[in-house]
Amino acid sequence: MAAVPQKTIHKYLRHNKKFPHVWCPGCSNGIVLGTIIRAIDDLKLERDDIAMVSGIGCSSRMPVYVDFNTLHTLHGRAIPFATGIKMFKPHMKVIVITGDGDATAIGGNHFIHAARRNIDLTVILINNNIYGMTGGQYSPTTPHDDVATTMPYGNIDNPFNICDLAIGAGATFVSRTTAYHAIEAQNMIKKAIAHEGFSLVEVISACPVIYGKLNKKGNAPKMMNQMKDNSIPLAAVNKLPKEKVEGKIIRGILKEVDRPEYTKAYQDLVDKLNNK
Amino acid sequence: MAQKETKMVSKKNNKPKKNIVLMQGNEAIARGALAAGVNFFGGYPITPSTEVAEIMSEELPKRGGKFMQMEDEIASIAVIIGASLAGAKAMTATSGPGFSLMQEGIGFAKITETPCVVVNVMRGGPSTGLPTKPSQADLMQTRWGTHGDGPAIVLYPSSVKESYELAIRAVNLAEKYRTCVVLLSDEVLGHMREAVEIPDIKESQIINRIKPTVPPEWYAHYEQNQKYLSPVASFGEGYRFHVTGLAHDKFGFPTNKSSEVQIMMDRLKKKITHNIRDLVQIESFMMDDAKIAIFAAGITAQAAKKAVVDARAEGIKVGLLRPLTIWPFPDSAVEKMLKRVDTVIVPELNQGQLIHEIERLAKDKKDSKIIRIQRFDGELISPDDVFKAIKEAN
Amino acid sequence: MAINKNTSKYCETRLSGSGGQGLILGGIILARGAIKDGLKVSQSQSYGPESRGGSSRADVIINDDMIYYPEATHFDILLALNQESCDKYIYDLKPEGVLIVDTTFVKNVSVMDSKVYEVPFTKLATEKIGSVVTTNILALSFLVKITKVITEKSLEEAIKESVKPAFYEMNMKAMKLGFELADNYK
Ligand SMILES: Cc1ncc(C[n+]2csc(CCOP(=O)(O)OP(=O)(O)O)c2C)c(N)n1
Ligand code: SF4
Predict the structure, then answer these.
(1) What confidence tens digit (pLDDT) does each residue in B132-179 have?
(2) Which residues in chain A touch residue B90, judged by CB atoms under 8 angstroms apart?
(3) What's the CATH code of the domain at A162?
(4) A217 C-alpha vs ligand 2 centroid, how far in Å?
(5) What is the ipTM of this complex?
(6) What are the structural domains, with CATH classification, of chain C?
(7) Do the chains contact at B75 and A274, CB–CB below 8 Å?
(8) Closest alpha carbon to B31 in B93, B77, B86, B75
(9) pTM here?
């Protein structure tokens, strides 16, 4: 009997459980989920050792679909919940799925403090420049002048550069890519998971149904093409003239350094106190 | 209902007891929690609870446990729930402003049935209020503080020794009932010191989670017919279950179906309302022939007790009913009391919280006289205050 | 309205003054000493939000039977290390109670029939012991010798348990001076 070809993701999805998923057609969240699964499969990690923790938002709905230890928490609080798991079971690989609002508005404080501690969490931040779940209010990454349901006359706020924020706070692995660059994302996520310390992968994403519509960005394929056209790899930055770099999304590993990891430092303290 | 017998005289043996130490209320909470097996503490400093965190930061790493000072109280409740899901016995300690910040997380622990203990050493409020002064103004917040419906388990000791005992009990009940248990104290109780004989805690007095043995495919995190103390899985041990703050089915997967939601809500409610006998603890002090009863908790009950002894010396038939469990409220003990006494005096350090419950239960007994003594200026209700009320009522 | 009027050991002590004068430590030492004497004890305190300055007090209730209420309300012994606390608490001192004041700061004492002891503790601690931080031990030792609320031996052991080893000698000096002052008090 000929074997039915299986896709990697099918090994990991809770297919008999809560499908269909909640995401709109054309949403980038599914693409990001696929890259995460393939990265984990490449790394040959034990599913039992993986915890996937999220906050609240469209992006944060991800954990329920995958067959790991999964935890869907409160808006903004995924990182401290994840911290508790990692601290108590340091052998686990703890992956945080969060949105731009979840991680940098309501959860901004937790985000910078986890980076400061350099606790070994892999934060995959899906940045769609808007509050998707609640229907299109502006987020800390909505570009200036863009329209949101709570900025009907154009955004007067200024957006965060999330990677700069993470670097400033002390994260030891900081990277950025887009949902269009799925293979790049997969490789970055692999590196981020393997990295010992606080790691961030910011994935610029498309929310065609809300953000795209409000800002006349076109349909999902158009928004994917915009990610391709509006981003440049880090390696190209120095080679290009200034005007070609300005306003572009810079993709790549922006920081990768070694610094003592928090749960290890804690274990050292325990060992010292017990004269091991 | 567990009735505590109060022994008046305790001079039974003259042998020097060995394990007597001068202990602070907050220290008793920390030591009790450690004795109960707490191995994870996450917190944020706040007067008058900070000593609990300080002791934990010193003790836990020595025992291989984990201590974390978080960036705020929201993170503190989150980190202990995360740790508990990974298998820890987890606790935090705070006071008014921090307790307010924790409310959303407390609801998360309740709906996800994740054991944890939150200590609230009450100070004067609202807002920053009186950081170094006692109050009992958070009794209702412990019951209704988090949004949404559902019962709560809240304990309130009234001595240093009892702080130790109820800390153990709080951890045990959190594990047994898979919920967030609030342990109350107050600024005076938390900071006062008493000579405490540290009891020997036997292993049998400690409740631990039981690990499941069924194959992972059979496991449901919220089994419908689950008995209390049924096996519960932790993250990272082969049972890859889902946990969400959304309404969920027995596997933990989100649901909107009213039939499944009803099951979940019933489960959350009944595990408490069907176990009142196990949960409610009350002390009955000189109540046998009492015509006047004082109903008081925590530090205020101490003043009441002294007033009772003094009034008894003058021949007044007065007693004290003291809840060690504030929620679920000891309805049946209070109803029994209301049948027997003419007058109930309710002293409390707030603008009237326990009294609502007494009035609720007294509404069919119109001849009961209910007297309130309320103080909310940062000072305690003194034995004299209660004594005067007893004299007037007599 | 003291409880257990018939038991000889019931004693309410309030140590009062301002934050930073070591009163809470004084209360802890007194309480530890009482435990060593085989007595029951309850120690509580009240202080302001600031750790220096502001008013501060520590209460110690000692009994050979159950103690119901941890705060002192009718004092058998009142130590006042500043004028404000002396003025504030003097009305709750029992008629037969003992008042001990630090005359470095307390200039007016208005009591009718209590026993009053006036000693410049802060001044003596600074001049004779060489450190103002020993004021609490000096005053406490004086108080113990005068009132016999706990034994001298237990006080000494409690001090040893409660102060850092580096400060032990200095505090012993303060204790001895306190005892001496009490012996020679006229
Ligand atoms: C405490 C709290 N405040 C507000 C909300 C409502 N809320 C749910 S999701 C969300 C925004 C989500 O935006 P983002 O994190 O960017 O994720 P996205 O939906 O865009 O993926 C908000 C405000 C909430 N759930 N909890
Ligand atoms: S609203 Fe936007 S982010 Fe949310 S699922 Fe739809 S497309 Fe995706």
Answers:
(1) 999 999 999 999 999 999 999 999 999 999 999 999 999 999 999 999
(2) 84
(3) 3.40.50.970
(4) 14
(5) 0.96
(6) 7-184 (3.40.920.10)
(7) no
(8) B93
(9) 0.94
